[in-house]
Amino acid sequence: MKHYMIVFLRSAISYIILLLFTRFMGKKQLSQLTYFDYIVGTTIGSIAAAASVDRHIDVFESCFSIVVWSVFTILISIITLKSIRLRLWIDSEPLVIINKGRVIYKNMEKAKYNMGDLLMQLRNKDIFYITDVEIALLEPDGKLSVLKKAEKSSVTVEDLGIQKPKTGVMVEIILDGTILYNHLQQIKKDEAWVKEQLKIKNIQDIKNVVFLGVQADNEVYVVTK
Predict the structure, then answer these.
(1) Is 205 exposed, middle or buried (0-12, 13-18, 19+ CB in 10 A)?
(2) Taking every annotated instance into account, which residue ranges of this chain make up the domain YetF C-terminal (predicted)?
């Protein structure tokens, strides 16, 4: 009976500490698990589980370890809000896997992603032909985001009697006040064009721009602080 009471108390302490710091770390742990989040969550969970049942492990040392891991995770989250370069290094950025029906194999190799994975995720989205895909992006959380070609997408009421508009994805040009020059090259624009767009929208300081993207119809979409 004493043994079970000890396990109960150790489990209760671990549970409370884990609950508190899960709340502090935010809901991203539940909704958008990247590789980094997955590793952190698994490690903290393993520490808590070991502290609950292994009497050779000091429960307070384990709780202190959970606190250290949680604090570092919170600090990294705060820093990545300020630094886009660190955020992209930790969480990575979406990779183009299919472009206009053509598989970009070098990006698949970079992501350690094989054709079986690709075909399975396409089938999960009711897509059985790669040539039906306009663009497919492998997100940092491992999910595949897919945009079908215009002629393969479902017809809506808005489409009836009108020509199907050109499809595409919004290209990110500015994130958190930083110009993404490789994305700028994709749309064949330069920094002077970016400054002109900001001027048109009466934005004086690029640091006030949280997001600037260009849609397929060349419409510029801006979010400012």
Answers:
(1) exposed
(2) 82-212
